[in-house]
Amino acid sequence: MLMSPEITPGGYTPPERRLLGPGPSDISTRVLQALAKPTIGYLDPSFVGMMEELKALLRYSFQTRNALTFPVSGPGSAGMEMCFVNLVNPGDKVIVCRNGVFGGRMVENVERCGGIPVIVDDVWGTPVDPQKVADAFRQHPDACVLAFVHAETSTGALSDADTLCRIAREHDALTIVDTVTSLGGVPVLVDQWRADAVYSGSQKCLSCTPGLSPITFSERAVDTVKGRNRKSQSWFLDLNLLLGYWGETTRTYHHTAPTNSLYALHEALRVLQQEGLENAWARHRSNHLALKAGLAELGIEFVVAEDARLPQVNSIHIPGGLDDKQVRGALLQQHGIEIGAGLGALAGKIWRIGLMGYSSRVENVIACLNAMESVLMAQGVKAEPGSAVAAAYRAYAAQATAR
């Protein structure tokens, strides 16, 4: 018989943190309480009614009337893969925009589907260049899909989804759009863009638990999936099979849905609806401006130009002479604040401060600036004590006056 393992008496208790990285974000008490509701069967009529509300709330969040709008049982990466395995066949040519880590993952998805990626590269920290995309379509008129990341989490850069989708339509190509970091934080306007397959994540600006990927498909995308002459390479993510569970008229077993996580997403979307999308976007913008003002007092510069900068992912250059891991470790251990490191080519060169969803609050901005000032000054950065927070408060006051 195996020896019984030693475990922590009383069970695991996570430490209190302010989650100010690129995800996950803080979760409100309302959403945490929703997780604790009684579990019922996923074909229970009561649960089915909740599913319909959840779909309607997602349509509001995506600003779409798409009938096929639902949460995938899996993180944003599962939503990404669902789009590719259903819309890309072997031999299909796909134009993929790569201006950060997640554009690179799109390339790999195309390759794993047997498609042919046509890569449009832009410097990390800059948005996708629409002219390069237009040029790629002229050079590859047989391309049938355009894939791009709306809000590149690895850099904090925001691309012009409206223009990119228009270019794709002009060449009769479908679009796959990553809104994992943008949904709920900046305008995501699926119907206005006329985007075809758009996916997101539950743990960023929606401030829900990780593990769900909201997704929406246009009628054109659904027709493409139904017209496939071969099965998707993924059984679990095959949209034709999932139509029976998330469709409008039928409820047939496909997989065991994550019941309590769906309760939480339903509540998180109710929170967003009650605040109002425009108010949520304005809140993210307001807190970004205050953080920006405070960081300027510490001599910290942003990676992304202001006109393409995400308010919810603040990518900043690490001041010369500072050790990335030491600073982030001090923020976590001394102040209970988590910020993000750089990824890929930007590892060790930048930090990413997330102000997403429930994390995008005045008290978090002030706490972050207080902690940053304390840690940086301890490592030799010259600054006037209290200046960062004072600058943030001045920024808030200026915004209030402007209103």
UniProtKB/TrEMBL annotation:
This is Alanine-glyoxylate aminotransferase. One of its GO terms (biological process) is glycine biosynthetic process, by transamination of glyoxylate. Keywords: Aminotransferase, Pyridoxal phosphate, Transferase. Residues 50-344 form the Aminotransferase class V domain. Signal peptide: none annotated. It holds the Pfam family Aminotran_5. Its cofactor is pyridoxal 5'-phosphate. Residues 1-21 are annotated as: Disordered. Substrate binds at residue 352. GO terms for molecular function: alanine-glyoxylate transaminase activity; L-serine-pyruvate transaminase activity. The lineage of its organism: Bacteria, Pseudomonadati, Pseudomonadota, Gammaproteobacteria, Moraxellales. InterPro entries: Aminotrans_V_dom, PyrdxlP-dep_Trfase, PyrdxlP-dep_Trfase_major, PyrdxlP-dep_Trfase_small, SP_NH2Trfase/AEP_transaminase.
